[in-house]
Amino acid sequence: MRDGDDAGSLDQAMKDFITARPRLFGIAYRVLGTSADAEDIVQETWLRWQRTDRSGIQEPAAFLTTVTTRLAINLAQSARMRRESYVGPWLPEPVDTRADPQLGAERAEALDLAVLFLLEKLNPVERAAYVLRDAFDYPYKRIADILETSEANTRQLVSRAKKHLSAERREPADPAAHRRLLEVFLTAARTGDLTVLEDVLTKDVASYSDGGGARGASRIPVIGRPRVSKYLAAFAPRFWPQADIRWVEANGRSAVLVSAGGNAVALLCVEVSVRGIERIMWVMNPAKLAPYVASLTD
Q1: Virtual torsion, Cα 178, 184, 188, 190, nearest 10 deg
Q2: What is the DSSP letter of 172?
Q3: N or C: which end of the chain has fewer CB within 10 A?
Q4: pLDDT confidence bin for 82, thresholds 50/70/90
Q5: In this predicted structure, what is the pLDDT of residue 78?
């Protein structure tokens, strides 16, 4: 035991786990992209922590982080195969970040839905290395120990992840500009105003609808300013007249929750750069919307 205290007891184990829990969830969520899977990983970490001989463990948080990261990587590898059969585009599951803007991290990196979406294209080990370094500020040596690899390889993993993100993503707008452009976009989308839509969308804008097979969600991405503008204008008369909107926060950014008949039907999120709106993300899968909506009433 550490310094003769009761670190080996279940009571102390619980205290250590509760202290580390926000960080554990933050790591698992960023690696996996869904809060449900992240919760499962955190629960499995707790079960393993209970069964572990804790008397020789000097740094409980380090042990718990290692277990969580490795479990998340393993699950991400199997989830990748499951998502190959996913109906339509797959988007990360949104989370309400009002109570914890950093989601257990030192910095908010790898929390924006657009970043999580891009990280999904990396292999799970690269993703974990990037998350541990850029969001949680772990030293390369510590990350290497967690991933059971060399420090040199860890640096390469993080470097590849950063290059991928920089190649696929432009510098994001600040929160105020993001909100302003989303407001303009929402008004134009609801009225089908092609002129304004074409003004706020970038040339290579992409719209993704994640419905998981739900009716009404496009099963293929819509790419390019002309196509996206016409697509939005075409469904405006059918989608918006019966809709109620609520401004919310999702993954550290302003977003819009769309409801019809008292039921949430979509969460609208956008990626905004200085050029304009780069990506439009419609989370419509009920399995992803329900936990998010429930968190708003907590």
Answers
A1: 80
A2: B
A3: C
A4: confident
A5: 85
